[in-house]
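Extended Data, panel c. Modelled sequence:
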Amino acid sequence: MTVQPVRLFGDPVLRTRATEVVDFDKELRGLVRDLWDTMEAQGGAGIAAPQIGVSLRVFTYHCDGFAGHLINPTFDVVGEEEQDGPEGCLSIPGMSWDCRRHLHVVAKGWNMHGEPVEVEGSHLLARCIQHESDHLDGVLFVDRLDAETRKRALREIREAEWFDGGVPVIKESPHSFFGKGGV
């Protein structure tokens, strides 16, 4: 399929809860391919449909040797261990901050053919599942930062070259400064 423009911080679609997928059809399979192509072109570990302007509960991931997609995902936390570590986002290009996440999760959902899928992840994969699931609820990782770090992050975002005073900006170049920092 094709690489799609990535919606950047400030775009309202990133703050809206995505709609459940009900039709497992050709359009959905095309969306999954577009997400995959966009994620790979941008060098991200994952990407959710709202990040390309589609408000459906779908994301793709490719990290820690695991790759796939989940539709209408949910996840359960395994154990009480948490991890602090750098997290970035394709919708907040070139920036990352330490974010606390659960260390182990089990995600459940469906694949593009409507078949059940279960993914167990730790470390980066667990972080990715949580990050992309947040996108589907209109939550950005900066919302999960401690108060001091969040204040600094929002200031840095407002000062970023790509940020246009809150006006949604779409980054169209598949070869940009997103780098591997995006989860």
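DSSP finds three helices and nine strands in the chain. This feature is highlighted in the accompanying rendering.
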